[in-house]
């Protein structure tokens, strides 16, 4: 392994930084998980199984890898405990925004969204957030930390941006109250309202600004698709439902960055990690 190369590259190859349209950034951050442990191993496993992906995308009839994909060295950081740690983590993403790369970060726990998003805001001050998740993640504090993964969307909301949370099916009374008192900038689409129709998407897309940061907690999927996640919840969305959703989002919005978090490998069953690898390749194919 050469210095500066990732131990495991998406699809098993590297494009030089200057030529790469896409950057895949592994960020195996894990400090505040509460239920299932192991999301710190998520990025490495997803990259490892990505070698088995078909390079040809059957839906678009293209070979998306030809656009240039570079996998960056995994980020290792001490626990984020205050805003200065958030700033420090965010600075590691500067070069991607400065060079207008299409950034796709693999977590690690959901906490990582906040530093990446805060950095993105400096370059795209009008951006909104689309949040796909089983959980609200809007608690002000959890287990003594404001940077717990259960608080990440609250920290994002603190920046004052417009936000849509969809697929949610586990949320506290406190979080619901927060959403209701900030309904001018936060819209919630619960899983049981949206699972059998996509009519809500028009409302969500017209509410959000043109620029969108997309954060996907893999527990938004039904556990028949992805079960390897730290805080599983029944009643998730199906593979094709989410693909259709993503296709529409990339068609209609200028997506500035994506993160996919909370993948928690459950060997020897690699169906979940492989599904995340395929999801990443699908996103690359949809991203205009
Ligand atoms: Mn979640």
Describe the structure.
The protein is of the alpha/beta class. The protein has one domain: Arginase, Chain A. It contains ten helices and eight strands. It has an eight-stranded parallel sheet with strand order 2-1-3-8-7-4-5-6, with helices on both faces. The longest helix has 16 residues, at 271-286. The mean pLDDT is 95. Bound molecules: manganese (II) ion. Residues 133-135, 217, 219, 231, 262 line the site of manganese (II) ion (MN).
Count up the helices.
10
Task: Provide the CATH topology.
Answer: Arginase, Chain A
Structural class: alpha/beta
Instruction: Count up the domains.
Output: 1
Net shape: globular
Ligand kinds: manganese (II) ion
User: Which percent range describes the beta-strand content?
Assistant: 15-25%
The whole-angstrom Rg is 17 Å
Helix content estimate: 25-40%
- Under CATH, the homologous superfamily reads Ureohydrolase domain
Biggest sheet, open or closed, and with what strands and sense?
A: 8 strands, parallel
Count of strand segments = 8
Low-confidence stretches: none
- CATH architecture, please? 3-Layer(aba) Sandwich
Summarize the helix and strand pattern as letters.
Answer: EHEHHEHEHEHEHHEHEH
The overall pLDDT, averaged over residues, is 95
Q: How are the strands of the biggest sheet laid out side by side?
A: 2-1-3-8-7-4-5-6
């Amino acid at each position: 392994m050469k210095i500066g190369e990732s131990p495991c590259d998406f699809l098993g190859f590297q494009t030089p930084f200057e030529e790469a349209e896409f950057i895949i950034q592994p960020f195996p951050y894990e400090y505040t998980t509460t239920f299932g442990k192991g999301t710190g191993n998520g990025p490495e496993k997803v990259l490892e199984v990505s070698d088995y992906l078909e390079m040809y995308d059957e839906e678009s009839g293209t070979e998306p890898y030809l656009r240039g994909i570079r996998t960056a060295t995994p980020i290792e950081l001490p626990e984020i405990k205050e805003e200065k740690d958030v700033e420090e983590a965010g600075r590691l993403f500067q070069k991607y925004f400065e060079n207008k790369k299409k950034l796709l970060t693999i977590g690690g726990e959901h906490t990582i969204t906040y530093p990446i998003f805060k950095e993105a805001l400096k370059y795209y001050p009008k951006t909104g957030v689309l949040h796909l998740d089983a959980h609200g993640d809007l608690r002000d504090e959890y287990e003594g930390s404001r940077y717990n993964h259960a608080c990440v969307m609250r920290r994002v909301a603190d920046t004052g941006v417009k936000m849509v949370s969809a697929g949610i099916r586990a949320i506290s009374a406190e979080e619901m109250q927060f959403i209701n008192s900030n309904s001018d900038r936060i819209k919630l689409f619960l899983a049981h309202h949206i699972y059998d129709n996509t009519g809500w998407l028009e409302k969500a897309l017209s509410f959000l600004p043109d620029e969108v940061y997309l954060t996907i907690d893999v527990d938004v999927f039904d556990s028949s698709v992805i079960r390897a996640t730290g805080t599983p919840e029944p009643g998730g969305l199906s593979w094709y439902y989410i693909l259709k959703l993503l296709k529409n989002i990339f068609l209609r919005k200028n997506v500035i960055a994506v993160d996919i978090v909370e993948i928690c490998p459950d060997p020897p069953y690699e169906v979940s990690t492989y599904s995340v690898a395929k999801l990443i390749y699908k996103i690359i194919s949809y991203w205009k």
